[in-house]
Design a protein that fits this description.
CATH class of the largest domain: Alpha Beta
Largest sheet: 10 strands, mixed
Distance between the termini: 75 Å
Structural class: alpha/beta
Number of strands: 24
Strand order of the largest sheet: 15-16-14-13-17-11-18-23-12-24
Radius of gyration: 31 Å
Length: 598
């Protein structure tokens, strides 16, 4: 065996093993498999456990094709299917629970079957393998003759009204019918109610035989694949076995039924958009939180969020100075300093020179400032509001800068990063929120974890909203103007992981913090609340869901950030100034303008 062939088979083993880890009740059926670039191998390596082989018998050979005109010398049942399957078994690439090898007979039934059986006898490892079912479809003998064929030969029933004796029924592998006989649905949008009734009725009828069911002639799309699995179709017909298998095997992990909710607060709008001078600014950043993430949280949270009650909305362009797609460091720096910089840079310009950030600028004007995050305090977004480093991974140097920062308050994770930093010489440190007394006049630091904080689903609870509420009470007591940045960091983390449950639960949790900020602005007419994101993560989309049970199916185009614009919401004094479409660094300049601290 050549070196290249060995590598090829190792590659196939890897894929087969990886796909076999996610067993499910559906079976992906590779329709017209001979038209694939690599017949058999493409379907088999993708994890498709049913493979359709069109067979035409001519000149004592079993050709793989649909019609006699399509015959190509050498493309036979043996060369394209039986030999590869034999090799797969020899290499023990047989992790399937059940493999259906369906021969769709296009020539005369009796003579073709006779030749096929003769050929199959040359492959005892295949016909004696209990995990492999040889199924005859297309042109078949009369049902009464089924019992005359070898034990390893089964048949495809194509009449849901067909009656069988128990002995003949044992020879039936599954039932297949033409989808177009029941619906003209093209796989886009939804089935009509009448079509859905007809489709469900034929599935129920077929299932009375207690055999698996398959439609042929089906639309071939993600929407169709999901709909058919939802309706109990056992074999999912497709010309795209790899894409279909990949979609279906990840469907469970991409679907989330929410048990985390935000109690929606509906503001009075009495101070919203007023021309009252702004004294306090609360900037909430949902890391990676694009419009689809927000939409998913809305749909999972009874159709509303506190965020979606707001009326002043704009859009922000997020590109960094040196890249089409920003990272959190460059985006955080743009928001914190008003200057676009290179990816990975924290609080420095494109030449590595430190730029004064908003907490430093406002401290000089008599403001108190704070940062809250569900990330470590050395994370890219919070550090952009107090540190100046050419690379976001210079965690030790960033940690040292927190001690020199102008922050009056911080709440975040990652206390282990600060073991060598004597923060207690500047901050009244706490190991949890419970011991943080908002009545203090001292500078305060709260570490909510030694490393990265827990997610909401892993037990963080309502900590972000509580931290927001306590921090606002802390600033209120100081009777000084303040700037507070609040980051919901793990929307981004779960976007990178393509984890729908994490994205939605963290976005809903973010809304609980937003609620506390909006309530504060309601009671304090000189406060402006801004809610935005540094960028979108994962190319998140929402193909399906159920409003009644709070279920969302998420899908992802990448594991990384994207270049799409992100929304910005504003509530309170001078909120109108934040509508429109603009660059992310303009947020800083607009804040400085409304605070009138130039």
């Amino acid at each position: 065996m050549s070196h290249k062939i060995i590598i090829f088979y190792i590659f196939l083993i890897f894929f087969q093993l990886s796909f076999s880890q996610n067993k499910s009740s559906y079976i992906v059926h590779s329709h017209n498999d001979y038209l694939q670039n690599s017949p058999f191998w493409s379907a088999f390596s993708s994890g498709a456990n049913s493979i359709e082989v069109d067979v035409f018998f001519k000149d004592n050979k079993l050709f793989v094709c649909h019609t006699e005109k399509e015959i190509i010398e050498g493309r036979t049942v043996k060369s394209l299917y039986l030999e590869p399957l034999k090799k797969a078994l020899q290499l023990k690439i047989n992790t399937f629970n059940q493999l259906y090898l369906m021969f769709d007979v296009k020539s005369e039934a009796i003579s073709t079957l006779k030749s096929l059986i003769k050929t199959l006898k040359q492959y005892p490892d295949i016909i004696q393998n209990k995990k492999i079912k040889i199924v005859i479809s297309g042109n078949r003998p009369h049902t009464d003759k089924y019992v005359n064929y070898p034990d390893y030969i089964y048949f495809d029933n194509q009449d849901v009204n067909q009656k069988f004796t128990s002995k003949i029924l044992e020879k039936v592998a599954f039932t297949s019918v033409d989808f177009k006989a029941y619906s003209v649905w093209n796989g886009k949008g939804r089935l009509t109610h009448d079509d859905e009734k007809r489709v469900k009725a034929v599935i129920a009828k077929a299932k009375t035989l207690q055999k698996p069911f398959r439609f042929w002639g089906t639309p071939d799309s993600k929407t169709a694949w999901k709909r058919f699995t939802d309706m109990g179709v056992d074999f999912i017909n497709t010309d795209m076995p790899f894409k279909c298998q990949n979609y279906l095997k990840t469907l469970l992990n991409r679907t989330y039924t929410s048990n985390v909710f935000s109690n929606v607060y509906k503001p009075s709008f009495k101070n919203d958009g007023s021309k009252v001078p702004v004294k306090n600014v609360v900037l909430l950043i949902g890391d990676g939180n694009g419009l689809s993430q927000i939409s998913s949280a809305v749909l999972a949270n009874f159709g509303q969020l506190t965020l979606t009650q707001l009326s002043h909305i704009g859009l922000i362009k997020t590109q960094s100075a040196d890249d089409f797609v920003t990272d959190s460091a460059a985006a955080g720096t743009a928001l914190a300093t008003g200057e676009k910089t290179n990816n990975r840079a924290i609080g420095v310009d494109i030449n590595g020179k430190a730029i004064k950030n908003i907490t430093e600028l406002l401290d000089a004007k008599g403001f108190l400032t704070g940062c809250i995050t569900t990330d470590k305090m050395t994370g890219a977004t919070p550090s952009a509001f107090y540190a100046h480093q050419s690379d976001r991974d210079y965690s030790n140097a960033i940690a040292q800068e927190l001690l020199k920062s102008k922050l009056s308050l911080f709440i975040g994770g990652g206390s282990n990063d600060f073991k060598s930093v004597k923060l207690n010489t500047k901050f009244d440190l706490h190991s949890d929120l419970k011991s943080f007394n908002s009545d203090t006049n001292k500078k305060v630091g709260v570490f909510i974890s030694k490393g990265k904080p827990l997610s909401v689903l892993k037990g963080r609870g309502n900590l972000l909203a509580e931290a927001t509420s306590k921090s606002l009470a802390y600033f209120k007591r100081q009777q000084k103007p303040f700037f507070l940045m609040i980051e919901s960091a793990q929307i981004d983390s779960f976007g990178h992981e393509n984890d729908t449950a994490g994205v939605i639960s963290e976005t809903i949790d973010f809304d609980r913090a937003i609620t506390e900020a909006i309530k504060y602005a309601e009671e304090n007419e000189d406060t402006l609340v801004l809610i935005t994101a540094d960028h979108e993560t994962s190319g998140f989309s929402i193909p399906n869901g159920d409003l009644d049970d709070h279920t969302i199916e998420g899908d992802f185009s990448t594991h990384d950030h994207t270049a799409v614009m992100v929304p910005i919401f504003a509530y309170g004094a001078q909120a109108k100034k934040f509508t429109g479409v603009y660059e992310n660094n303009e947020v800083f300049h607009k804040i400085i303008e409304v605070l009138n601290v130039n």
